[in-house]
Amino acid sequence: MTKKILVAVILAVLVCSCASKRKGTTRFDDNISPYVKEEQTSPYVKEEQTSPYIKEEVTVREEKVKTIDEEDVIYDFYVIIGSFKVVDNARKFRTELTEEGFKPVVLEGENDYYRVSVGSFNDENAARTRIRQIRNNYEKYSDVWLLIRKK
Hints:
It is a single chain. By secondary structure, the protein is an alpha+beta fold. It has helices spanning 2-23, 87-99, 124-137; strands spanning 60-63, 65-67, 77-84, 105-109, 114-121, 145-149. Strand 4 (105-109) and strand 5 (114-121) form a beta hairpin. It is elongated and about 100 Å long. It starts with a helix and ends with a strand.
């Protein structure tokens, strides 16, 4: 008789555990779950800016820079479209950008990077407006950012 009871208990346990799987339930509490909890993120939606004075998400860095290959005209804000460790790569990129209609300038930064700028301004709002124009018209340059010249 004990064998029959033991078999019945084992079958009951198997049936119960299978039933929970069919219903999609789990015995894990979220705090002890062995699965990594996925982060819920909302997709980035680009909003139309109506005023040039609205501050949108733009990466901003401050560093000392000087122009190379051209007369050193000093501006406070630069729109940076590329950064390179090798000056020849920056010059090649400048040539490509010129063919696309930009007027790029190569800058030498204080941290041994060569920055390719496609806009130089003394007004921050004008620089941010140029960044917005580039992002709206050139999807491949959506990572364009703002460099503030350190004095």
